[in-house]
Amino acid sequence: MTMPLSENADQKTCDIIAVAQQVLGLEAKALEQLSQALGYDREGGLEGGLEGGMKQSFRAAVSLMHQAKGRVVLTGMGKSGHVGHKIAATLASTGTVSFFVHPGEASHGDLGMITQGDVVIALSNSGETAELSDIIAYSRRFSIPLIAMTRRADSSLAKAADVALVLPNAPEACPMGLAPTTSTTMMLALGDALAVALIEQRGFSANDFQLFHPGGSLGNRLQLVADLMHDGEQLPLIPPEAPMSQALLAMTEKRFGCVGVQNDHGALIGIVTDGDLRRHMASDLLEQRVQDVMTKDPLSIRPKALAAEALAIMNTHSITSLFVVDHTQPVGILHIHDCLRAGVA
Predict the structure, then answer these.
(1) Which of 238, 285, 301, 328 would bridge 267 by S-S if both were Cys, CB 3.0 to 4.6 A apart?
(2) What are the tens digits of pLDDT across the range 214-242?
């Protein structure tokens, strides 16, 4: 009996899902092998043909890139080249000056883009990509450090390189074992590992990251409190011995729904909010002293903190304004609407 069309479709969908799960499983296993390889010394080794030494090679590669006086140049053909583009972009966005040179174009003049002081990272699964020969020869001739990323330790590329990052001999996810899948995934992940290791080496901070990501939602999230806060004459501040009538006038004039309490040394010691007014509502409220009504030790934030951090504090504590304090001194105030207008979320 012929199976209904809907059942045929369901069967085909199940087969497709099974294929997808198999691919992801193979690539996940390869990444696990790559991670394990970083824990093996020269005398070690893993099953599947990987020679020992990935730990030392990785450290050497990071050291070469960190100490380079020039740029990090990525190169590779085909799918390896596409991965090289991405690694170069990741490095550039995290503080390591980097770019991609196509090996074919390099042979027709673009070798001039690579100078002494640079470091070259060449990607090739087989390590025998013919188009890389001119870049390899050029790097050797002018003593430009060469890092190889390949799956074959005995390849021409690995033997010519100063440092060889040899990938585990994991099978490609392609059923014919031909299309670059698992190998390019490992290259991409290893490139991320190099970039993040360099972040740690350079002490690259969120503030540095913002310089390279000023646009879009990421740029918005990386804005600093100091960029959005109100300061100077806009700050609602009052001394603790002042009457509440004066505090109420300051709250009305500045329109932040609160007033900060500053002692003789200039330190922020308290805050009076709309909520404090309601809690102390009485016929003599305006005659009371600010210090008798204020909430002591108010929440605050540093001027160099991310605006997203300030927004999180305001949301967590259900407040709409946050004083910005530098070494106990109030230097600004941030309203929740300032964050929302700036696209911080």
Answers:
(1) 328
(2) 555 556 667 889 999 999 999 999 999 99
